[in-house]
Amino acid sequence: MSKTLFDKVWDSHVVRKIEGGPDVLFIDRHMVHEVTSPVAFLGLKSRGLRVLYPERTFATADHNTPTINQHLPVADPLSANQLKALESNSKEYGISYWGLGHQKNGIVHVVGPEYGITQPGATIVCGDSHTSTHGAFGAIAFGIGTSEVEMVLTTQCIMQPKPKKMRININGKLSKGVTPKDVALFIISQLSTSGATGYFVEYAGEVFENMTMEGRMTVCNLSIEMGARGGMIAPDETTINYVKGREFSPKGEAWDRALAYYKSLKTDSDAVFDKEYTFDGSTIEPMITYGTNPGMGMGITHSIPNAEEVEGGAATYAKSLNYMGFHEGEAMMGKKVDYVFIGSCTNGRIEDFRAFASIVKGRKKADHITAWLVPGSHIVEKQIQDEGLLDIFTEAGFTLRQPGCSACLAMNDDKIPAGKYAVSTSNRNFEGRQGPGSRTMLASPLVAAAAAVTGVVTDPRTLL
């Protein structure tokens, strides 16, 4: 029987089917961070249970970590307590722990792929919605809740209903200045934030085949923002070349067996999806959001739509624009920006900083702009230094911070003040997401860089 890529991975991990209920799914890799794990570990302690496969569990601190002076004690007591709890729980249960100061510390969805923990055909979960990032490798990866974290810790399995299947095809060639982030924001703008609810998405077509692994991770990362359970891309030579030789990747004969498996991971030609979309990649331009969800995005040269052109009701739309201080029919270009943030599990990889550098090189940061450049890991931080990007940033007036989730969410010191506008390369622009009262415009590293040097929303194609 013909199968999709998703079917092949899912079905091979089903331990038991419950009639009229969910599947019991075996989990290959469990990523853990400090925010969603403390209560799960308390559940283990209260029931006297152990972690079944500690070698399949990996813990890193990221959401609450400061991005400056990481050698000093964490000032915020809640953050400090959560970080301490993760450290002590990891030690008690024999789990690999990469805390502040550890060379492998970084954002969970950045370090997982860097060290070869993320592998094609695997099932991967984490108490974090953007676990979908790992689907770029042809893995089934999705976020889980605290009670499910406890379930996976104790049984290495999870009960899940099998999602429906969607395929999104984008062919053609992307235009100059259009990045994977723009592709993802374009898709969400077309489908809306609920357009893929109940589905697992496979991305297919020339545009994704020609993307780097960093680009594919960005796209899969944002799958959750259109309601999908996750997203995935079939592994190919690009995937295999990325995975080979990394610390936790298979070696020797195990690699040969793994390679044969990886090459089988593709959708059969006559497999059927529950829903399918096709877009022309050449029509996509640099994107920017104007509202308070990732679906409220448009090409940067367009004007803010009128209420009758968008879904969700006029009152809701008016509330969103009022929060942002924007109006129907306005152009986004030329709007003043106060903060620029490049980083997060969406755009905190070396490719993103190379793109940022391509715009700021030979230019200066706008005087009124506060810019936070935050690598997703120490590997990225070192690459920035080794490739001379740090020199470009410093000369242009920028400062590089230390790895962490930073201004993606208001769980650490990097918060956008109320009423201020931020062009952010992160994944969510909800009210207060980057700080109470903050106003977020989601965009690519190129759009962020253009705003950083001009001080206003700017089409990066005019600066390339």
Secondary structure layout plus pairing:
Elements: H1 5-12, E1 14-17, E2 23-26, E3 29-32, H2 38-47, E4 57-60, H3 77-93, E5 96-98, H4 108-114, E6 123-126, E7 140-143, H5 146-155, E8 157-160, E9 164-171, H6 180-191, E10 199-204, H7 206-209, H8 213-221, E11 230-232, H9 237-243, H10 253-263, E12 275-280, E13 287-289, E14 297-299, H11 314-324, E15 339-342, H12 344-347, H13 350-360, E16 370-373, H14 378-386, H15 389-395, E17 421-424, E18 439-442, H16 445-454
Parallel strand pairs: 3-4, 3-6, 4-5, 6-7, 9-10, 9-12, 10-11, 15-16, 15-17, 17-18
Antiparallel strand pairs: 1-2, 2-8, 13-14
Helix pairs in contact: 2-5, 6-8, 13-16
Provide structural commentary:
This protein has helices at 5-12, 38-47, 77-93, 108-114, 146-155, 180-191, 206-209, 213-221, 237-243, 253-263, 314-324, 344-347, 350-360, 378-386, 389-395, 445-454; strands spanning 14-17, 23-26, 29-32, 57-60, 96-98, 123-126, 140-143, 157-160, 164-171, 199-204, 230-232, 275-280, 287-289, 297-299, 339-342, 370-373, 421-424, 439-442. It is an alpha/beta fold and 464 residues long. It folds into three domains: 5-160, Aconitase, domain 3 (2-Layer Sandwich); 164-236 and 261-283, Aconitase, Domain 2 (3-Layer(aba) Sandwich), CATH 3.40.1060.10; 288-462, Aconitase, domain 3 (2-Layer Sandwich), CATH 3.30.499. Strands 5-4-3-6-7 form a five-stranded parallel sheet. The chain has a four-stranded parallel sheet with strand order 11-10-9-12. It has a four-stranded parallel sheet with strand order 16-15-17-18, with helices on one face. A hairpin with a 5-residue loop joins strand 1 (14-17) and strand 2. Helix 2 crosses helix 5 and helix 13 (350-360) packs parallel to helix 16 (445-454). The longest helix is centred in the first third of the chain and has 17 residues, at 77-93.
